[in-house]
Amino acid sequence: MHGKWDWLRDEVKGFGLIRNAPTIFKFISGKLSGPDDLVKCALCPNMCRHACPISIVDGKETTSPAGKSRVAFLIREGKVELNLKNLEPLYMCLSCDACSQWCPFEFSVADLIRPIKEEAVEKGVTFEEFKEVFENLEKHGYVYGEPREEKVWKARGEVLYLRGCAIRENYPTLTDKALYVLDKLGHKAFTIEEKCCGVPAYNLGNKELFKKLAKEQAERINSSGASLVVVSCPSCAYAYRVLYPRYGVKIEPKVVHIAELLEENLENIRAEGVVTFHDPCKLAIGLEKPDTLKNVLSKVEGLEVAAPRRSGKETFCCGHGGSAVSRLNPKLADEIARERANELGEEAKLVITACPTCKMALEGVGDLKVLDLVEFIHDLLRDEDARIEGG
After folding, report:
1. Which of 152, 221, 337, 355 gets the most CB atoms within 10 Å of its CB?
2. Which domain range does residue 312 map to?
């Protein structure tokens, strides 16, 4: 590990801790037992803060990545009280995991501080802004409350399309477009009366509610008869593929994000103009698919794809991830979205993303035209069909 800790040695000098430096180095590098991962993160001089959207826009020490870990540590050790004031910095996290990309140990600050959130929920120390979410999920299995009556496309094959809460509530027409795209790819897809995947409860620290929703949703999926599950929401895909197995919940069919399916199967499609793209965190980082969105757009002949400065695993969150920031501090969430929108606007006025929440966040703060990947590909396929029919 030659040179790996040079940055820490320099930082430690600045804090007058040089006499303790050898011990600190041993602790952090894992050569000496004692401190757990939360302590290691708390000791770090914020080497990932340059990538954290909260830290970049908010600029406060307590909401920086290591700052959150320090607060979590102090709460855990009983040095400060477990109350809403002290908990608030922990909820200023988008769960984007940008921090993990710059950490020598690939720590996720969201994962490190989650046990403190779970303890708070168990003890009833919960923000008012979260209570309605928990009640809606508990009663209806839907973030937004009692769902409106929805059309269900009955089984036409073995591909189940899961819409997710954001599409069901904010972009219901995307369902028809997704089914059309899937049909053009050779999949006769159907839908079911689905429940929330549970990610909002998970991010807010309600572990028991998350497990309940996961079991209910898994039962619905597994009993659907599907051999393949396609989703439009990266957080849903992340829940089914990464989180559910952690809690012993098994989804029997294979689960893919629709962008992954397009990456493998899209061909013979054309367009003109310039577009840029916004990689959703849970697709690029969570599912480790940093190039999927760019690859799909690159398949479109004649289209100029201008990559933003921050993309792939270095993408910049839309500000509305993680379930908490947009509820506790909507102004900060919008400021982060605006930071991202301004960056994207430097490349093109048409932005393609692959997450309905990202679409909602980015189109709400500027003059950009933001399309979900499904919308964009649907329109191109429709135009191609019209061209062929017109001879």
Report:
1. 355
2. 263-389
> Do 58 and 46 belong to one domain?
yes
> 313-337 pLDDT, tens per residue?
999 999 999 999 999 999 999 999 9
Query: Edge to edge, what strands does the sheet with 274-278 contain?
Result: 304-305, 274-278, 350-353, 369-372
**Could you tell me if residue 145 is inside a domain?**
no
CB 352 within 8 A of CB 293: yes
Are 273 and 384 within one domain? Answer: yes
Q: How confident is the model at residue 299 (pLDDT cuts 50, 70, 90)?
A: very high
On whether residue 359 sits in a domain, the answer given is yes
The answer as to whether 195 is a domain residue is yes
The mean per-residue pLDDT over the stretch 361-378 comes to 95
Long-range contacts, stretch 36-42, CB < 8 angstroms, 24+ apart: 37/105, 37/107, 37/112, 38/69, 38/72, 38/73, 38/76, 38/112, 38/113, 39/73, 40/105, 40/107, 41/65, 41/66, 41/69, 41/103, 41/107, 41/109, 41/112, 42/66, 42/69, 42/70, 42/72, 42/73
Listed residues 262, 289, 322: the one ending a domain: 262
pLDDT of residue 329: 98
Structural contact between residues 269 and 380, judged by C-beta atoms closer than 8 angstroms: yes
DSSP state letters, 138-179: HHHSSTTSSPPP------SSSEEEE--HHHHHH-THHHHHHH
The chain-wide mean pLDDT, for the chain, equals: 92
Task: In whole angstroms, give the CA distance from residue 230 to residue 159.
Answer: 7
Q: What's the pLDDT score for residue 151? A: 85
Q: Is residue 148 pLDDT above 90, yes or no?
A: no
Are both 270 and 363 inside the same structural domain? yes
Q: Is residue 131 part of a domain?
A: no
